[in-house]
Amino acid sequence: MAAAVTLEGVSKRFILHHHKTRSFQEALVNLVHRRNGSREEFWALRNVSLAVPQGKTLAIVGENGSGKSTILKLITRILEPTSGRVHANGKVSALIELGAGFHPDLTGRENIYLNGSILGLSRKEMSRKFDEIVAFSEMERFIDTPVKHFSSGMYARLGFSVAISVDPDILIIDEVLAVGDEAFQRKCLGRIKALQSRGRTVILVSHNLEMLRSLCDQAVWLKQGVIAAEGPVDDVVGQYLDAVQR
Amino acid sequence: MGAVAHLNELFAYRELVRNLVARDLKARYRNSVLGFVWCLFNPLLMTVVYTVVFTVLMRSTIPNFPVFILIGILAWNLHATAVMGAIGSIVGNAGLVMKVYFPREVLPVSVVLSNAVNFVLALVALFALLFVYRVNLSASLLLLPVILLTQVIFSLGLALFLSALTVFFRDVEIIMETLMVAWFFLTPIFYRMEDLVPAYARLMYIANPMASIISAYRDVLYLGGMPGFDFLTRTFVTSVLVLVGGYLFFHHLARRFGEEL
């Protein structure tokens, strides 16, 4: 089966500026003194190769700082790899931060349209999906209220509802399912399962290993930017748990 | 993705540009009771101030001074607010740029366009003044959109260049605030090109596209004459070159925005 997402020998280096050059003056001083600030390299990913088959759901596990989010940001093109190639075959939508791009002074309705266009939807598509988005978020009563009056839970619900409505070929989820109450979380999971059954590809990052086991087919365990194990989700999560609990 | 292929993608996100422009205009006018009236009030007040200073206190001989100065103020305001607003547009939207992918040009482009819409709205005040002073206009008025397009292209090129540079050097904004004041005085806004020493005037037309643009506006809206065709063409070509340069520069740096913010 064709791969929906492939990473070929991908490495990502970040330059940690301990004293970040932010002005011309510092840049000039550094030039004269022939030093480069006190910079240190940090390799978030080293030579990672990975193929996610179409229609499968992949879990990425690992400790904080192991490179999980970096992989997701490379797939969504927020970051570019230092070396190697990243390829996504189809429309990618990411639930990385819900409601990123909401404007506090605009109403829920206006923000739905704004957020939809940030995610690349046309006006026609948005009009068609609008009612569905509002119904899913259960925010009918507040839809014409400026979102600055929303609680953080309401904010996230609206954000999730817009992002999930994009109907992507590849859905990327970074630890955002902990939003809303029990009932809303169940609804979110239901929506993700519906996408899976329609043959969409999903990539999930979470520390909720139980949820990963129930949702995913395969898993990758990242350790300091290198793949430590990959395979069926139960095997990989098992190995990861063994290592963490030792 | 190549710089040219990327233009296609940018076009696909035109809905986002439209929404950001609408968001900006709504946010600008929603929180004030008088809303839209303020966008007319500020340039008119400045017109009164300049007119008092230059005609009453300094006895300027420029005829229809309020019309003369308002054209300069509106054109300069468009330039200054578009460029200064766009400079911080990437840095100011860091939360968005680091969380969602979209063509980053969208941010400075929408700032420049929303200011252009604002300019068009403020023209109401100018046309009211033209009527009051019975300025005779000719068919050359039809060139107004061409001049505006030239200015928007020029400001956009500069906005792209500076907004990308600001991601790496935050003091660009502070430096530009000062440079814009100098630029204001070096542009014929409250004086005429003819008032200058001829050698300086020539230099200004070559080195300062804003001087040419404001002269063209005045030809059309104040003198009722025709701007020289080759003069207008030269300014247009210069603006397009600035835009192409700004776009390529932006495109080259944009891939590093996600980690530099």
In short:
With 246 residues, chain A is an alpha/beta fold. Chain A has helices at residues 24-32, 68-75, 108-118, 123-137, 152-164, 182-197, 209-215, 233-245; strands at residues 3-17, 39-53, 57-61, 83-88, 92-95, 170-174, 201-205, 218-223, 226-232.
What features would you describe in this structure?
The complex is a heterodimer of chains A (246) and B (261). With 246 residues, chain A is of the alpha/beta class. In chain A, 37% of the residues lie in helices and 28% in strands. Chain A contains eight helices and nine strands. In chain A, the strands form two sheets. In chain A, strands 5-6-7-3-8-9 form a six-stranded mixed β-sheet, sandwiched between helices. In chain A, α4 packs across α5. Chain A starts with a strand and ends with a helix. Chain B is mostly helical and 261 residues long. Chain B is built from 13 helices and no strands. Chain B has helices at residues 3-12, 14-30, 36-57, 65-87, 89-92, 94-97, 106-132, 144-168, 172-185, 198-207, 209-221, 229-254, 257-260. The longest helix of chain B has 27 residues, at 106-132. Chain B is globular, with a radius of gyration of 19 Å. Chain B starts with a helix and ends with a helix. The model of chain B has no long low-confidence stretch (mean pLDDT 89). The chains are: A alpha/beta (246), B mainly alpha (261). The A-B interface holds A 14, 22-25, 27, 73, 76-80, 92, 94, 96-97, 100-101, 103, 105-106, 110, 113-114, 117-123 and B 12-13, 15-16, 18-20, 23, 26-27, 30-31, 95-102, 169-171, 175, 255-256, 258-259.
